[in-house]
Amino acid sequence: MADTITVLGNVASDPDRGATATGIPTLSFRMATNHRRPDGAGGWIDAGTNWFEIRAYRALAENAEASLSKGDAVVVVGRLKLREWEAKDGKRMNVEIEAESIGPDLRRGRSVYHRVSHQTPLRAAGDGSAGAGAGAGPGGGASPGGGAEAGASPGGGEGAGAPEAEGDVWATPGGNATPF
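^ that's the sequence the OP posted. Answer follows.
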């Protein structure tokens, strides 16, 4: 079974980072969804809890690890997988979601988004050359805050090479303020 579902709930365990045998980053955590219904007298009755094992891979795993902690309210979109296994007292069912997307539940809190840019080998080398793509943001234009075309860097340095030397302010969660 591979149905796509969306589930709102809470991170119920500390996210556990791992890797596949081939080195692909993984992240797994338990998620709980609580169901409540009105009791007819103006209050609420807890109608049960569903438990899911959430699994994420690659960049989603790395970003979720940096963003999530136990107790966070999240929205998970992914493929539902039901797995049966044999226990001492009979068959058991494990409900897993292979996550395609994970985000905060903004009905219950606020969040700040930090874009992660994946540097090209030319920029990662830090050679300061003005080759193809140097100083360009996504889509080939100037980077946020002026960039190479304006001759100024977000950090106030001089020249087109300064942004690479300082690092990518978008890729540092909780670091510098959004550079615009």
